[in-house]
């Protein structure tokens, strides 16, 4: 059965400015899926919940 949790678009995505448009969804069974919102039928990158948390922490750390 396919997970039907909603996709969330990054607040930093702005397709009108040519910036990357990233969407993520948090799976009920655990883990995260990432995709390009300009190609919603394209490939989806699955990552573990732990890997996603490490990624978000690193992005936040480097954004300061």
Entry keywords:
single chain, alpha+beta, DUF397 domain-containing protein, 4 strands, 1 helix, flat, four-stranded antiparallel β-sheet
What would you say this structure looks like, in words?
With 64 residues, the chain is an alpha+beta fold. It has one domain (8-63). 23% of the residues lie in helices and 23% in strands. The protein has one helix spanning 49-63; strands spanning 8-9, 22-26, 32-36, 45-47. It has a 4-stranded antiparallel sheet with strand order 1-2-3-4. The longest helix has 15 residues, at 49-63. The N and C termini lie far apart (40 Å). 2% of the residues are buried. The model has no long low-confidence stretch (mean pLDDT 86).
Distance from N terminus to C terminus (CA atoms, Å) equals 40 Å
What portion of the residues fall into strands of 2 or more residues? Answer: 15-25%
Which shape, going by the Cα principal axes?
A: flat
Instruction: Provide a count of the helices.
Output: 1
Averaged pLDDT: 86
Rounded Rg? 13 Å
Helix content: 10-25%
> What is the domain tally?
1
Largest sheet: 4 strands, antiparallel
Order of helices and strands: EEEEH
Structural class by secondary-structure content: alpha+beta
Any low-confidence stretches, pLDDT <50, length ≥5? none
The count of β-strands is 4
Order of the strands making up the biggest sheet: 1-2-3-4
């Amino acid at each position: 059965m396919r997970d039907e949790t909603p996709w969330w678009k990054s607040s930093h995505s702005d397709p009108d400015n040519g910036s990357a448009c990233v969407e993520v969804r948090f799976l009920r069974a655990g883990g995260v899926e990432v995709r390009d919102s300009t190609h919603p039928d394209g490939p989806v990158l699955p990552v573990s919940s732990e890997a996603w948390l490490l990624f978000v922490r690193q992005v936040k750390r480097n954004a300061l």
